[in-house]
Description:
The protein has helices at residues 12-24, 35-45, 61-70, 88-96, 109-140, 151-168, 182-189, 191-208, 232-248, 277-293, and strands spanning 4-8, 28-32, 49-53, 78-83, 101-104, 172-179, 214-219, 222-228, 251-254, 257-259, 263-269. By secondary structure, the chain is of the alpha/beta class.
Amino acid sequence: MQQKILIINDSSLEGRIMLDLLSYQGYHVNVARSGQEGLSMAKSFEPDVIICDIVLPGMNGLELARLLQEDVDTQKIQIIIASSNNNKQDKLEAFRCGAFDYLVKPLDFDELLLRLEIVLRYKQSIDKLKRRETILRAGSIRDFLTGLYNRQYLDQKMAEELARVKRYGHTFSVLLTDVDFFKQINDRHGHLVGDKILIHLAGRLQLKVRSTDTVCRFGGEEFCIIAPETDSHGAFELAEKLRKTIEKEPVIVSEDFKIPITASFGIAEYEGPEETTKSLLERADRALYNAKKKGRNRVE
């Protein structure tokens, strides 16, 4: 991908020379003539690096650098400040405002290209580390088999939801569900088939819940759904919709082998300020146990 450079310089001659030089080196280059125009282009053009003159009309380069670093949409852009002032105070102030480098004018273009290469390598390394961090973070909260959120994320989300309803006086419900007779299916057909059933169920749950709901694998064959702004009546309706979907859609193991499954559900609604993650999940678990006890394939 072509790397993008934004030059912010109110001198038409200097801007044109740098535009031609950097374009010749294979960079995608744009030029802004003022700090305000540069700020706007930083958001629309999304450059990898900004080469910014310290003296600009309206907004100077240091103020621009500070604003770019404070905005989450632009703080990943690396900034090189260019100035005719070669004093320590200006350099320190530039670095305090978020600049990666400081070049003294008149610019030596060989030095500029080398400094630009260094800052781009640095940015690539940072971007790579951030992508890896995102992948690792996603992996730490996702269930490997089903791709749903895992128990660790469930605990985190429950704490957030409890804090929200206690603060604003709203309500929410949790639904626990698992596959009826799952142990017998596993014993009869093997764990690979059991895994296919869990993946199938996870997919049905994820597909049929609302965008505001959170589906997690609770453990084993159990799944949990956090349903914000939902009382017990709404939770019952949601569980019934899911139960009927699961009942009518068998698991396709192979072209000529399908296994019909059913699921039982237990629901629990938030009851007040003393409620905890543990107490709410325990009530949902008892309701699920009652659904099993009363014949399975039902909601309690």
